[in-house]
Amino acid sequence: MSTSSPLPTRLDQLKIQNQDETEIDRPSGTSTPGADLGEGLTRSSYPKGMNPKLRYIKPYWWPYKTHVKQRWIGRQILEVITTEFRDRSMEYYRHALDSGVTRVNGVTARPDLVLRDGDRIDNTVHRHEPPITNDPILVLHIDREKQFVVISKPGSVPVHATGRYFRHSVLEMMELDYGIKCYSVNRLDRLTSGLMILALTGKAASRLATEFAEGKVQKEYVARVKGKFPEEEVTVDQPLLTVDRQMGLVIITPEGKDAVTIFKRISYDAERDQSVVRCEFTTTSIATPAHQIRVHLQYLGHPIANDPLYSTSEVWGQDLGKGGVDLTPAAAGTSRSAALQARVGSAAPLKKTVDRDHDDIDLTSPILLSEQARKIISKLRRQKDEAEDWIKWKEVIFTAKQAQDEIEGTKSNPQQTNDDIKSTDPYAPSPLKAPAYLPPGFCAECFVPLPDDPDPETLFIYLHALRYTTPDLGTWETPLPRWAGERWDGDWRGWCDGAEVRDVIGEDKERQSREGVKEGDSV
Length: 523
Known about the structure:
By secondary structure, this protein is of the alpha+beta class. It has a domain at 224-388. It contains eleven helices and 18 strands. Strands 7, 8, 9, 10, 11, 12, 15, 16, 17 and 18 form a ten-stranded mixed β-sheet that branches. Strands 2-5-3-4 form a four-stranded antiparallel β-sheet. A two-stranded antiparallel sheet has the order 1-6. Strand 7 and strand 8 (148-153) form a beta hairpin. One of its GO terms (biological process) is enzyme-directed rRNA pseudouridine synthesis.
């Protein structure tokens, strides 16, 4: 359903700017934000932080610690945090280690430190969560008896806290926006929109996950792809494997997980040279291979039209990766274990800056990579670094170090224990001393340059989870997204043909009120 309302006035904008969580009011039961662009108004007309198509959150200080996972044991700290955390470059994490912002067991650690079982990694950041699209999470069904919720997730929102996303995640937003504490049962990629099933209790999450694993789950998606897709049904049976955790890149290779996807064209848009395709697969587990539909569509030469990972000719060439990646190992290629041994084998600190583009690529892959695969990963990393302008984050490191010492009330101390690290109010004012002059466009808390607002249309892909059919929970579906319509007008917000979604949240609150159930109580 598409709605429109007047553009916010300057007074409204000032109010929005001062909110802890900046958000334009949205009508309930629709995925359309509460403001249209208006005639003659372009995206550049909006001041930073005031785009009504985006949802913002005020930055906050966040100290956190994580214990070493089994797969990290025996690996260098720099390699682990670069490949596992993924949201910053290797140079950023090297500076973080050298300056003591990222520490191991409370003390400064060299980049070549080899992690052991029981080690703890500490970090302090001023979290600048990226904006997400200002589409609400739509609650389609609440079953208090079976303790599950069916929702439609907007694109751009991760399910769990990950990387730079914490409060802008499905589980946090469900609690913040609707007062419903949820537990995930199935997952969707951050860029993908559509159907999800959440549990209302931890026990229900375990039970539902088991039911999914034991029974057949039929999943149906819809995608908008490049080119004229064949009219006949097409089946792709190709195994998939993640070869670069930093970029989340998946390729087709015999060493991967088995994956079968069935495609059927719904319509063809000759003006845009794009097709809308129905995508189906049946699995005995909810944990299907990552990026299954995206990579299988690319394999056919019809990648999702706005997929930043799998559809750019600058990275994949004119054929857009059709037929998959060459799997012939590069002559100078090394296995992950050999590359890691070369780095861990010496006790001397790493004096030379590691080449971000190539030298650590083999560390992230479980198989030998071809020269083509390595070049693709290198190009994708360069694109990410250019988009995020990572060089400026060197200044963030030294600011964060000062804040860390003030927040924790202590310098790095070899005798420090877990109990010595005090919990910190994330809404506490900045402990840093403000500079004499702070130019416009810098954070008033940590004094670093602020990124421009992203284009909302780059925060999601044309892939939507449309329908799930399960033996125990029945069939659940959403309307077709607006961009899947045969006569799409170019506006991605809302549903095809003006379809509406019931206000299930309102109905649930009324029912609980009648039954005398307090919000958040177990039923």
